[in-house]
Write a structure and sequence with these properties.
The protein is an alpha+beta fold. It has three domains: 151 residues, no CATH class; 51 residues; 78 residues, Roll (PH-domain like). It is 36% helix and 23% strand. The strands form five sheets. It has a four-stranded antiparallel β-sheet with strand order 1-2-3-4, with no helix packed on it. A four-stranded antiparallel β-sheet has the order 10-11-12-13, with helices on one face. A four-stranded mixed β-sheet has the order 16-15-14-17, with no helix packed on it. A hairpin with a 2-residue loop joins β5 and β6. α5 packs antiparallel against α6. The longest helix is centred in the N-terminal third of the chain and has 25 residues. It starts with 19 loop residues before the first strand and ends in a 5-residue tail after the last strand. The relative contact order is 0.08.
Length: 320
Amino acid sequence: MSVPLQRGRGASSSPLLDIQVYRPGPALALIILLTPAVVALAGAAVYLNVDGAIPPWLPLTLLLWIPCMPALWFAMQSVRTDSTGLAVGRPWQRWEEVRWEDIERVEARGPLLRVVGAQGQRLTFSTALLRDGDRLRRQLLLRLPAHVLAGRLSHEAQQLVVTDIYSTPEGGYAGTLVTKTRLPWRIVLALLAVAALAGAVAAASNGPTTGGVGVAVACALIAVAAAWALAWASRTVLIDAEGIAVVAPLVRRKRILKWSEVELVEHTPHERVLRLRGDRRLVCAGPGLLTPAQATLMRGLLYEYCAKRSVPILRRFWVL
């Protein structure tokens, strides 16, 4: 009889499975590819307007981009995060690292973020040039203490803290996001419903004329539609690691859709309405109807639990 292979003894140190690497994204690639063409076309347009002809040496100006390529090496940065700290590196260069507990200050200088460590480390990078850079920015805001963040980063972090969502060592999210359509939207819908109802009553009180009946019916339909939209906008949306739930007002009826059941996510052009589809479907308010902090977190949670599972997220012009 053959003896099954015994499991080898594990190593003394476990592998770092929670490492997240953010590499240069498409924005930097577009800058590298399109800058020479844009400069050449702009020069050609200027010469056509001034002289009426393009000089033969103008295409050679594209060769001037070659000496600029080494300067782009400074923008070719990758950022690595894990349970111990943050690191920044470039091609053919060692990673510069700083531990989470050693970070003394993080500040925004234009499009750049500067991280200052307790031992004099200074890491500078731009999240706009990184793939999933917004996710990295959210992770930093949720993970670092408030006294470390300076300027507008501190304000962004304060908005995120009130949502009871925090970052995990693996770069994900923990907690429950409880949100609802912003109050100004609900006020507008309530005023519209009241105004339409008042218009229907006023038109009906003028007598059974043909025009009055038509106006009363139109105002009544608008009032009903506005009241329905107000009830829909007043629903509470809860998002956590298990799934997404919608709680109706007054009756407190809850509809739950687990992430494992979601096969498709659709949203309107301005992300005001979301529709998650599987064996069932669930429609709720999207990031476009939430506060900026809640919208940022909702996009991050949808990325974490849908996009990373290869669930398509599509744009639709109309969602019901």
